[in-house]
Write a structure and sequence with these properties.
The protein has 126 residues and is an all-beta fold. It has one domain: Sandwich (Immunoglobulin-like), CATH 2.60.40.1470. The strands form two sheets. Strands 3, 4, 5, 7 and 8 form a five-stranded antiparallel beta sheet that branches. Strands 1-2-6 form a three-stranded antiparallel beta sheet, with no helix packed on it. Strand 3 and strand 4 form a beta hairpin. The radius of gyration is 16 Å and the shape is elongated. The relative contact order is 0.29. It is 0% helix and 60% strand. Pfam families: DUF525 (PF04379). It comes from Shewanella mangrovi. This is Protein ApaG.
């Protein structure tokens, strides 16, 4: 199997951080745990990240940078890398999506797409 976008599986779990949020000040904190699984037969390195974070008012926050949580991990075939990070919204609901720039050991670069996922305070219906 050659490394293609479909060879990288990305799983996301989110959590509302009630104790760190302040709804009266329009400050809603969320954590997200990302698991990146390499389903290919070649090691891949996560080089950069690019996020689009949209709140319920349509405000978009774009985040780009090297690696994730200060690391540029290399993920071996059939192994996974997991990290947890967070974001702040001004609304109780939002959506994140993005992509990772990945590089194979043979030097080929490609994007692993992170499908849109919802950030929501429990019990909020939108």
């Amino acid at each position: 199997m050659t490394v293609e976008d479909s060879a990288i599986k990305i799983e996301v779990k989110t959590q509302y951080l009630d104790h760190q949020s302040s709804p009266k000040e329009d400050r809603y904190l969320f954590s997200y745990t990302i698991t990146i699984i390499n389903l290919s037969d070649e090691p891949v390195t996560l080089e950069t990240r690019h996020w689009l974070i949209t709140d319920a008012n349509g405000k978009i926050n774009e985040v780009q940078g090297e690696g994730v949580v200060g690391e540029t991990p290399t993920i071996k075939p059939n192994e996974a890398y997991q990290y947890t990070s967070g974001t702040v919204l001004e609304t109780s609901v939002g959506v994140m999506q993005g992509k990772y720039q990945m590089r194979t050991d043979s030097g080929r670069e490609f994007h692993a797409i992170i499908a849109p996922f919802r950030l929501s305070v429990p019990g909020i219906i939108h």
